[in-house]
Design goal:
alpha/beta, Rossmann fold, 50% helix, binds NADP nicotinamide-adenine-dinucleotide phosphate
Length: 279
Amino acid sequence: MMDVKMLCCAVLFPLQILLCVLKAAARRLMPHKRRDLGVDVVLITGGGRGIGRHLAKEFAKQGAKKIILWGRTEKCLRETCEEISLTGTECHYFVCDVGNREEVYEQAKVVREKVGDVTILVNNAAVVHGKSLMNSDDDALLKTQHINTLGQFWTTKAFLPRMLELRHGHVVCINSILSLSSIPGAIDYCTSKASAYAFMESLTLGLLDCPGVDCTTILPFHTDTEMFQGMRVRFPQLFPPLNPEMVAHRTVDAVRTNTAFVVLPWTMHFLVILKRSAF
Ligand SMILES: NC(=O)c1ccc[n+]([C@@H]2O[C@H](COP(=O)([O-])OP(=O)(O)OC[C@H]3O[C@@H](n4cnc5c(N)ncnc54)[C@H](OP(=O)(O)O)[C@@H]3O)[C@@H](O)[C@H]2O)c1
């Protein structure tokens, strides 16, 4: 009896996989229905500058109800907040270091009391220490892991439970193509991003059974912000840095079309495949 059951499973499993692949392909070919952001309260970590600032502007442009910015530098947060408020979208900012667990939970409470329930959480804040392992002191290495990886654990733990209660929410991670294909000289960053990728993959799978709550992970290539300024890229004509406005636009679109993983530009898929076959 057991053998017959096992045999059925063995036959059905590849068919199930094929069905999933066909469904995914059909979904890609169909025109996407875009989610209306009119009821959404969006919190963006690192929203004061860089890609985060463009994300805030893009979410506002595409109709989000309220925008909340988190970051460490009040001046940047205030300036971005003022710019968004001028467009007519309600915007708030709070100084919060996402690498500090107590501060995240404390500020999450303040956000809920002062602004309301967050329905889209964008984990964007990150740092890069960018030295070799032997030239880095332990505190600097720990700081990158706290901000880039653990920060996402704290923010998600703070806001996800309410999204699940409301059956309405989205967790977004601005990751990096370096999470799938590391480079030398940024060992702290690559490690933290690979860990953040595993976090999002696990979360995405875990939320498949939770209606109304979804995830999006964005994996951009080198983007023109302060983060990697001065970084030398081989063949810069072939691989120019991405424009942060474009990254923000594709991110908001991915949320609206409920796309789980986006590699930017799509040609970077080849890099990952090449790397896998090279080792
Ligand atoms: N630039 C690239 O080439 C590139 C490529 C792929 C992926 N990404 C990813 O895109 C995201 C945004 O990067 P970016 O290029 O916009 O970098 P950026 O210009 O250096 O901005 C980083 C943002 O993170 C915030 N931040 C840093 N530490 C923080 C902390 N402890 N708590 C709260 N906020 C903090 C910063 O604000 P404060 O300093 O005010 O706190 C700033 O708003 C990151 O996740 C990065 O890994 C960037």
